[in-house]
Amino acid sequence: MASNRIDIRPLTPRIGAEISGVNLGEPLDKSTFDIIHQALMDHLVIFFRDQHITPEQQIAFGRHFGDLHIHPAAPSLPGLPEAMIIHADANSSYANGEDWHSDVSCDEVPPMGSILRIHTLPPFGGDTLFANMYTAFETLSPPIRAMLDGMTALHDGELLYRGRYTNSDSGRVYPKAVHPVIRTHPVTGKKALYVNSFFTSRILELSKAESAAVLQMLFRHIETPEFSCRFRWQQNSVAFWDNRAAQHQAIWDYFPATRSGVRVTVAGDRPF
Ligand code: SIN
Question: At 164, which CATH number?
Answer without folding.
Answer: 3.60.130.10
